Every structure is written in structure tokens, then in C-alpha cells.
């Protein structure tokens, strides 16, 4: 089968025709999972909203399981496969290695996702996405997850294979582009993630089939979180790569320093996965040395890396904008940014929300002593909706606005709604994250069907603020679901009914990649005072919030 | 401008070596997080 390449007339990007089809199918599969997970979100949020309390307990846990699995695993990882294929074959101007095997991977993932969902909806596998033993799901729940993971692993190897092909066929010179390097970081972390998943889920499958008598609960949690946490770090690497890509697409922005950004990704590769230990900070059985080495000493290097990205992406945008003449004051470059372009506004809301809400709360919770303030409260979902929803999901949604014309060759329908959608979804999600964190600070549990403990022997009197926060979670959550559901409808309608756009030229040989000179004299000495101010605001908020929590901790026992 | 004959800096050579990165990214968490953690748990005396 000869490889052909299509040159997109709108972006100049070059797509291997086989890879392009894989990207489209993976992205669409991801959106289907997002749709299902979003419907489940409605059940979850309307139950946790105390005044509504919609579902009975068993259905609530079923919906919560499906929500977690479809959102966190299926939506994000399907989309990431598309990102990996894009970052390798398209950005390196190279053919995709072994498209047939990539298809096998896709179908394994698809079969796995369907199988696990069938198990969940049959009703006897409401073990939530963490599936902590000794809770037991049906065997096909685990088997589906394993098939999905194997499929994703194949995708990672096709990505690595494509890097090898590109090097052998000399489609690029020197180093791979920064966005591809970010995708490589994601793929490396993914391989560790999936291997850990196999190590723990295969015995768990055998246990649910009756071949193994018992699985140790602490062992399970250690190895499971090597997968559960690391998979979040795939997301971080992938969405940071998407930030850089969007900055380049929208502004023509070049990284402030390739060296610094690449080193930051390198810190991710070395240290990010150790943070898995923050899920066990309140667990017995593992000592403080292990906890502190993993979550503090080493993890802070990875936090440093995130702060570097959080600064260099807006910094690159500021440089590009200043070079275009938006030089007035500290922030003209930002005021004059294309706030009506959903690819940009999604990316910027993602960056700010990920840093301020997800990043600061994450460092707080990841401190051994402070962790017990919020352990297993709804603060935790508050934090990770800032990371995986505002950070990852919003960035991917924004990128999709760019991909619809470029990859799917359709015009985006309802451009007016597209302008608003990032704000509707993004800002309501900011609110959801904040009020969940507020309720969690007051002690409201996560994964709890009835915070009122109706009929319980020893009820607990919540402060009124706790109910208020959960009510606000409900309201903001419904708005977020409207914003997310609107995005799905818009994309699906555009793919089905949007105006067909011109395919562009198809050729049988790729045009080689020419990278701009790495140390050219371009924009090198444009200062970025606006970004500096933003970074200082961030640091001050960070320090204040961190110390406020130590203050809480010191007064905890006094309050009893 | 970058001199073509210039030696590639060591750090760049490391970052360009994708399989070295893969090796590091798997070994480090396997040793520091998984193996160390599992050994601590395995060393807890079993109650009789
Ligand atoms: C569209 C708006 C969304 C709303 C309103 C929403 C709401 C919620 C709520 C209230 C919970 C906590 C339930 C509890 O602990 O009792 C939850 C859990 C969760 N959500 Fe979302 N969510 C949304 C989107 C997403 C997305 C896009 C993702 C991932 C990409 C996601 C991932 C998760 C995960 C992993 C859990 C944890 C499930 C568990 O504890 O087992 N959510 N969601
Ligand atoms: Cu984590």
C-alpha cells in the first residue's frame, strides 16, 4: 500500500492519508466517550446537589463509575492517540509507522471501552474507576480495561516507531520539534502507566475469575496509583504540548527558549510519575521517607517544570504580540489577543485555570501534613476537575476547533456559539472546582451519596456553608454540562453537516520538514514584563494559600 | 548563526536520544516509587 500525503490548503500541514484517518477515528471515539461521560455527569451532579438528590444510591455509584471511566480514561486517551499520531507523522512530515498495527490498537481500545461500559451498565461493577479491592467487579470490567490499555500501548509504540522512521528517512534534521518532544514525554509516561496497569489489573481479573484468592489492599493501591496518577501526567504533558501548538498556530509564537522548555519536559520524564505517592499520603504501611522522597523532594522538580511551561507559553505569546506592535503598557499584548477565537480562549483559560486552581491546590494536597485536611473529601475532585477538565479537556476542545477544518475538512457550524463556548464551559468549570474545594475544606466527603446522612444513627451537623457550596456545585455543574454538551453538538453537527472544504493537493512523496533556525536573531531580546507580572501574582497566591492551610492545620485539633 | 560544524552539546544529545529518555522515564519511577513502596509493604509482619 503506497503512502500518500495530503497538503492541507488552510494550514499548510501535511497529513499521511493513513495517519489522518486514524486521527479522525480516535478523536471521534474520544468525543463519544465524552458524550457518555457527560450524560453521567448530569446524574452525578444532580445527586450531589442536596436539594435535588436525584438518583438512588445504587444508580449514583453506577453513574459515578461510568463518569470516571469514560471521562478520565476513554475520552482523554482516545484523543491523546490522535495527538500522538499528529505530533509524529504530521509534524515530522513523515509516514506513520505500521498503520495496520495502529488500527489493531484502535480496535482493541474500542472493544475494551465497550466491554467495560457493558459491565458497568449491567450494574454489578459499580466499583468506580479506581476499582479498589476488595470491591469486586465482573471479569469483563477488568478485561475491557486491559484490552483498552494494550491498544493504547500499541499506539505509543507506533508513535515511537514513527520517530524512528522519521530519523531513518531523514524527514527532519537535528532535534524533533518541541511539540513532538512534548508528545514524546507523554508517550514515555504512558508506557510506564500502562505497564503498571497491566501489573495490577491482570491479577485483579484473575481474582474476579476466582483463580487468585486474595489481593492485598495496600499493594493494590501502590501499583494501581502508578497507573492512576501517571495517566494524569500523560494528560499534563499532552495538554502542555497542545498549549505550545496553539500558541504557534494562533500567534506564530516561537518558544522563548527551546532549551528551557525541553529541559522542563525532561524534568517531567524523570520526576512527574513519582507524584503517584500523593494518593497514599494518608495510608498506613508505607513510611514517611517513601512518602516525602516521592511527593516532595523529587516531585517539586516536576512542579518547577510546570511553572516553567506556565511562564514560557504566555511569554512566547507576549513576544509574538509585541513583535507585532502591541507594545503599550504591560498588558496590551494580552488585551489585543484574539479572545473571540475559541482555540485561543480555550487554551488561555486552560493555562490559567490549570495553574491557579489545579496547580496551587495540588501542591497543597501533595504535602504530607496538609493532605489530611482534605483527604477523601470532595476537595479532591475539585482539584482534579481543575486539572483534567480545565487543563486537559478544555485544551483538547480548543484544539478541535482548529482540527475540524484542517483534519476533518469541514467548516465549523455556529461560529457565534463557538466564540462563547470556551467561556461558558471553562468559567463554569472554574466555579465547579472552586466550590467543590470549598465544600471539601469543610469536610464534605467525595463519592458520598447522601451528605445529610439521613436516617443514620449518628448524624453530623454540617455548617450551612457546606450545603450552600454543594448547591452551588450543582448549579455551576449544570451550566458546565450545557457548555460541554453544546461543544459536542457543535462538533458533531459540523462533522456531519458543515460545509465540505477543499481537500488540497495529494502527493506521493512528503515535503521534507524545514525547521526555522534555532538560534536566529528573531525576537530574541523582546522583554516580557507582562508575563513576569502574571508569574508574580501566581507566586504570591501560591504562597498565601499554602500558608493559610498550615494555619488551618494548626487549629484543627483546637476546634474539637 | 548556528555553525554546522559545532559540536552538539551533551544535554541536547541526551534529549535527542529518545530511547534513553524512555529508559529513564520507566526505571526511575519503577525503582523509587513501585519497588521501594512494595518492599515496605512486603516487610510488614503478618498478624497471626
Ligand atoms: C461536564 C461537567 C462535569 C461535571 C459537572 C462533573 C461533576 C463531577 C462531580 C460532582 C464529581 C464528584 C462526585 C463525588 O465524588 O461524589 C465528579 C467526579 C469525577 N469526574 Fe467529573 N464532572 C464533569 C466533567 C468531567 C470531565 C470532563 C472529566 C475528565 C476528563 C471528569 C472526571 C471525573 C472523575 C475521574 C471523577 C471521579 C470519580 C470517582 O470518584 O470515582 N469529570 N465529576
Ligand atoms: Cu495524582
Cα Rg of chain A: 23 Å
| Sheet with most strands: strand arrangement of chain A | 2-1-3
Arithmetic mean pLDDT of chain B: 87
Q: Quick one: biggest sheet of chain B? A: none
Whole-Å distance between the termini of chain A? 73 Å
What helical percentage do the residues of chain B reach?
55-70%
Q: Using the CA coordinates, give the radius of gyration of chain B.
A: 20 Å
Arithmetic mean pLDDT of chain A: 92
The CATH topology of the domain at 338-501 and 527-554 in chain A is given as: Cytochrome C Oxidase, Chain A
DSSP strand content of chain B: under 5%
H/E order of the elements of chain B? HH
Oligomer: heterodimer
Task: Quickly list its features.
heterodimer, A: 560 residues, mainly alpha, Cytochrome C Oxidase, Chain A, three-stranded antiparallel beta sheet, 15 helices, globular, B: 48 residues, 67% helix, rod-shaped, binds protoporphyrin IX containing FE, binds copper (II) ion
How would you characterize the overall build of this protein?
The complex is a heterodimer of chains A (560) and B (48). Chain A is built from 15 helices and 3 strands. Chain A is mainly α and 560 residues long. The longest helix of chain A is centred in the middle third of the chain and has 36 residues, at 288-323. Chain A is globular. Chain B has 48 residues and is mainly α. Chain B has helices at residues 10-16, 18-42. Chain B is rod-shaped and about 70 Å long. The model of chain B has no long low-confidence stretch (mean pLDDT 87). The chains are: A mainly alpha (560), B mainly alpha (48). Chain A binds chain B through residues 160, 163, 174-176, 181, 184-185, 188-189, 191-192, 195-196, 216, 218-219, 222-223, 226, 230, 259, 262-263, 266, 269-271, 273-274, 276-277, 280, 285-287, 290, 293-294, 298, 517-520, and chain B through 1-2, 11-12, 14-16, 18, 21-22, 24-26, 28-30, 32-34, 36-38, 40-42, 44. The complex binds protoporphyrin IX containing FE (HEM) and copper (II) ion (CU).
Amino acid at each position: 500500500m503506497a503512502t500518500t500525503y495530503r497538503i492541507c490548503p488552510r494550514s499548510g500541514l501535511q497529513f499521511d492519508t493513513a495517519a489522518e484517518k486514524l486521527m479522525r477515528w480516535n478523536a471521534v471515539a474520544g468525543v463519544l466517550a465524552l458524550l457518555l461521560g457527560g450524560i453521567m455527569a448530569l446524574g452525578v451532579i444532580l445527586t450531589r446537589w442536596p436539594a435535588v438528590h436525584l438518583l438512588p444510591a445504587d444508580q449514583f455509584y453506577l453513574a459515578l463509575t461510568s463518569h470516571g471511566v469514560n471521562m478520565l480514561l476513554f475520552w482523554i486517551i482516545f484523543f491523546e492517540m490522535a495527538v500522538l499520531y499528529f505530533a509524529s507523522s504530521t509534524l515530522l512530515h513523515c509516514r506513520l509507522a505500521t498503520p495496520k498495527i495502529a488500527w489493531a490498537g484502535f480496535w482493541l481500545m474500542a472493544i475494551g471501552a465497550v466491554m467495560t461500559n457493558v459491565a458497568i451498565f449491567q450494574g454489578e461493577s459499580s466499583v468506580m474507576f479506581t476499582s479498589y479491592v476488595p470491591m469486586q467487579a465482573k471479569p469483563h470490567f477488568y478485561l475491557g480495561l486491559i484490552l483498552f490499555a494494550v491498544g493504547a500501548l500499541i499506539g505509543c509504540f507506533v508513535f515511537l516507531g514513527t520517530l524512528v522512521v522519521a530519523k531513518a528517512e531523514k524527514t527532519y534534521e537535528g532535534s524533533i520539534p518541541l511539540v513532538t518532544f512534548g508528545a514524546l514525554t507523554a508517550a514515555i509516561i504512558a508506557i510506564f502507566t500502562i505497564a503498571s496497569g497491566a501489573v495490577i489489573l491482570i491479577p485483579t481479573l484473575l481474582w474476579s475469575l476466582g483463580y487468585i484468592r486474595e489481593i492485598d489492599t495496600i499493594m493494590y493501591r501502590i501499583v494501581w496509583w502508578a497507573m492512576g496518577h501517571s495517566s494524569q501526567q500523560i494528560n499534563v504533558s499532552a495538554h502542555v504540548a497542545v498549549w505550545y501548538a496553539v500558541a504557534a498556530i494562533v500567534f506564530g509564537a516561537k518558544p522563548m527558549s527551546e532549551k528551557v522548555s525541553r529541559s522542563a519536559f525532561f524534568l517531567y520524564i524523570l520526576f512527574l510519575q513519582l507524584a503517584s505517592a500523593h494518593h497514599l499520603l494518608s495510608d498506613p504501611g508505607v513510611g514517611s521517607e517513601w512518602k516525602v522522597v516521592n511527593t516532595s523532594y523529587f516531585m517539586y522538580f516536576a512542579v518547577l517544570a510546570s511553572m516553567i511551561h506556565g511562564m514560557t507559553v504566555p511569554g512566547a505569546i507576549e513576544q509574538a504580540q509585541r513583535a507585532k506592535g502591541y507594545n503599550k503598557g504591560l498588558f496590551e499584548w494580552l488585551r489585543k489577543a484574539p479572545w473571540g477565537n475559541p482555540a485561543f480562549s480555550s487554551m488561555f483559560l486552560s493555562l490559567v485555570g490549570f495553574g491557579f486552581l489545579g496547580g496551587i491546590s495540588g501542591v497543597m494536597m501533595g504535602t504530607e501534613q496538609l493532605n489530611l485536611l482534605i483527604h477523601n473529601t470532595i476537595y479532591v475532585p475539585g482539584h482534579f476537575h481543575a486539572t483534567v477538565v480545565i487543563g486537559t479537556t478544555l485544551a483538547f476542545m480548543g484544539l478541535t476547533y482548529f482540527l475540524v477544518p484542517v483534519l476533518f475538512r469541514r467548516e465549523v457550524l455556529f461560529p457565534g456559539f463557538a466564540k462563547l463556548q470556551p467561556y461558558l464551559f471553562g468559567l463554569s468549570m472554574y466555579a465547579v472546582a472552586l466550590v467543590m474545594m470549598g465544600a471539601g475544606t469543610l469536610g464534605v466527603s467525595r463519592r458520598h451519596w447522601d451528605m445529610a446522612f439521613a436516617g443514620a444513627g449518628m448524624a453530623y451537623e454540617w455548617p450551612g456553608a457546606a450545603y450552600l457550596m454543594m448547591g452551588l456545585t450543582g448549579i455551576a455543574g449544570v451550566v458546565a454540562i450545557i457548555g460541554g454538551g453544546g461543544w459536542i453538538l457543535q462538533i458533531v453537527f459540523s462533522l456531519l453537516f458543515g460545509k465540505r472544504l477543499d481537500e488540497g493537493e495529494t502527493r506521493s512523496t512528503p515535503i521534507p520538514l524545514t525547521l526555522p533556525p534555532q538560534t536566529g536573531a528573531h525576537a530574541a531580546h523582546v522583554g516580557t514584563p507582562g508575563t513576569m507580572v502574571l508569574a508574580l501574582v501566581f507566586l504570591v497566591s501560591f504562597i498565601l494559600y499554602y500558608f493559610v492551610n498550615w494555619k488551618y492545620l494548626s487549629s484543627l485539633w483546637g476546634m474539637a | 548563526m548556528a555553525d554546522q560544524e559545532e559540536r552538539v552539546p551533551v544535554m541536547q544529545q541526551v534529549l535527542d536520544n529518545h530511547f534513553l529518555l524512555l529508559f529513564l522515564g520507566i526505571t526511575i519511577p519503577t525503582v523509587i516509587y513501585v519497588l521501594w513502596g512494595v518492599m515496605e509493604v512486603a516487610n510488614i509482619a503478618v498478624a497471626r
